[in-house]
């Protein structure tokens, strides 16, 4: 198995991309901390995986929560090898002038500050294991931004830049840092990204810009995360892989 003997934390693992990543990691032999702000969702995903998964309720914007998540990993599995910063949020597709300050603050706290907090908590423990892999879920929005999601776009641009800078700074500690840029996907935030109801007509507008003709699925993102977590990618760091069906071409 590709991740046999590895311990992973996946944030936002209660649904969508995070759930797909957590399940894929477990299938490849990893022990997984299923972390989510929604306790019931985390518990359901962990129960579906089985004994090699432990649910943890965490608000990734709160330092004490993140530290407790780290302690849970240490208590359950004795260390940490892989961190997937997948938890994210957005504002509804709309004018940049109408997004509230509260929404703006929440977006940057969940999408950006969380990476700062998890890095502080996880890096010392990864060093004890001789290194590790950090994977950040960014977005095509951070690379080819479009109107209507301006403040969200900026947060994901920050994730891409942070990924590259972290990769350089943490390389001497044998910690690799990479990102995944998904295109719009079939997740709980779909209608927020679209700014409209999820109808066949509205989907067609977005699909027109994706050469392969479909939205991303959790399995697409999970497969990319598996590659970046796999020891076989030990010489890959600082990249932001576009899993977008050609959207960014």
Which SSEs are present, and which pair or pack?
Layout: E1 7-11, H1 16-27, E2 31-36, H2 39-49, E3 53-57, H3 63-77, E4 82-85, H4 101-128, E5 132-137, H5 150-170, E6 175-182, H6 190-194, H7 200-207, H8 218-229, E7 240-243
Parallel strand pairs: 1-2, 1-4, 2-3, 4-5, 5-6, 6-7
Helix pairs in contact: 1-8, 3-4, 4-5
Instruction: Profile the largest sheet.
Output: 7 strands, parallel
* Integer tally of domains: 1
CATH superfamily: NAD(P)-binding Rossmann-like Domain
Radius of gyration: 17 Å
Number of helices: 8
Spans of at least 5 consecutive residues whose pLDDT stays below 50 are: none
Shape designation: globular
The percent range for strand residues is: 15-25%
What is the β-strand count? Answer: 7
Mean pLDDT: 95
Q: What are the secondary-structure elements, in order, as H or E?
A: EHEHEHEHEHEHHHE
- What is the CATH topology? Rossmann fold
Secondary-structure class: alpha/beta
Helix fraction, binned, reads: 40-55%
- What is the level-2 CATH architecture name? 3-Layer(aba) Sandwich
End-to-end C-alpha gap:
34 Å
Which CATH C-level class is it? Alpha Beta
Kindly report the spatial arrangement of strands forming the biggest sheet. Answer: 3-2-1-4-5-6-7
């Amino acid at each position: 198995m590709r991740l046999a003997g590895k311990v992973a934390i996946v944030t936002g693992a209660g649904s969508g991309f995070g759930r797909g990543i957590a399940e894929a990691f477990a299938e490849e032999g990893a022990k997984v901390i299923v972390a989510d702000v929604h306790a019931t969702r985390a518990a359901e995903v962990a129960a579906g995986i089985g004994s090699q998964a432990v649910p943890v309720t965490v608000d990734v914007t709160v330092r004490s929560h993140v530290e407790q998540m780290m302690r849970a990993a240490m208590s359950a599995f004795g260390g940490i090898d892989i961190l997937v910063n997948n938890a994210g949020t957005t504002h509804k597709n709309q004018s940049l002038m109408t997004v509230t300050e509260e929404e703006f603050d929440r977006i940057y706290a969940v999408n950006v500050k969380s990476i700062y907090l998890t890095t502080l908590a996880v890096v010392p423990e990864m060093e004890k294991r001789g290194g590790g892999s950090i994977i950040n879920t960014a977005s095509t929005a951070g690379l080819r931004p479009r109107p209507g999601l301006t403040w969200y776009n900026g947060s994901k641009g920050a994730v891409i830049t942070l990924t590259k800078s972290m990769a350089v700074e943490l390389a001497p500690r044998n910690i690799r840092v990479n990102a995944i840029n998904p295109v719009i996907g079939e997740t709980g935030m779909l209608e927020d990204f679209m700014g409209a109801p999820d109808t066949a007509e509205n989907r067609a507008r977005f699909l027109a810009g994706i050469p392969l003709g479909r939205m991303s699925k959790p399995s697409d993102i999970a497969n990319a995360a598996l590659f970046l977590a796999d020891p076989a990618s030990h010489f890959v760091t600082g990249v932001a892989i576009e899993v977008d069906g050609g959207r960014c071409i």
